[in-house]
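Structure, all two chains, one model.
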Amino acid sequence: MKSIFHFILNNFFPEKTAYAHCDIPCGIYDPHSAQVAAHTVIRMTTLINELKASSKEPPFEERKRIISQVARLTNIKEIHAELVKHEVRVLWGDYFKEEHLKEYPDLHGKVFKIMKLASKAKQEVSIDAANELLSLVQDFAEIFYKTKGAEPVRVKTVYPTGGEIVFHK
Amino acid sequence: MLLLQKFKIQGHSMEPKIKDTDVVLVSFIPFLFKNPAVGDIVAFNNKGKQILIKRIKKIENGRYYVRGDNKDDSLDSRNIGFISKSRILGQVIYKL
């Protein structure tokens, strides 16, 4: 009887697809890229600040070199500040869910601050804004790892920025 | 509204009850006699993008909050919000 039922179902009912999945699904989320990008913003800001001219009225060739260098450093600073925003937005929008907000009610506020600080780091050559940006991204990374049930740890990097990066045990 | 439809499952959000590649029958007949209830596994139209299979977790103001049983890997009401009855195609009544 069961086989007749299955025969009818298999032959007279067209099969469609129903999805039981997430967006991709992949489950691959990581706050690492956002932190590396924030370190890069710090480094670019430092390098711009360290640029010096030999005099108040440097020769044309030296001016050209400095302007070119400022343009290159600023370009990378812009790209990586935008990358911070992108990476954090993806985690915030795709990974974090309502249940996480109950445990971390300040998550929205932190993301909002990260967006504003990343913009400030782009608009200005401010090492304070860049450092504060990294600090908030690190807080964000810690929350992420905690929601994954992993214990976050701060590790000293070998980057020229000398700061830390949040991993997990 | 079709009375009986056959769906092949793609994804893992309803595991362990319904697994990837399982084939299920979905019918609207039960909902001719009762409203969808908490605990029912339903197929619904996700705004024309695809048909999703989820479990009703709660009902508020006649709208349905649906979740995957495998909550770590599921696109559900946590992302898409409450759904209306008009989007529900039927209840999963049988797994082949």
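The beta strands of chain B are 4-10, 23-27, 41-45, 51-60, 63-67, 88-95.
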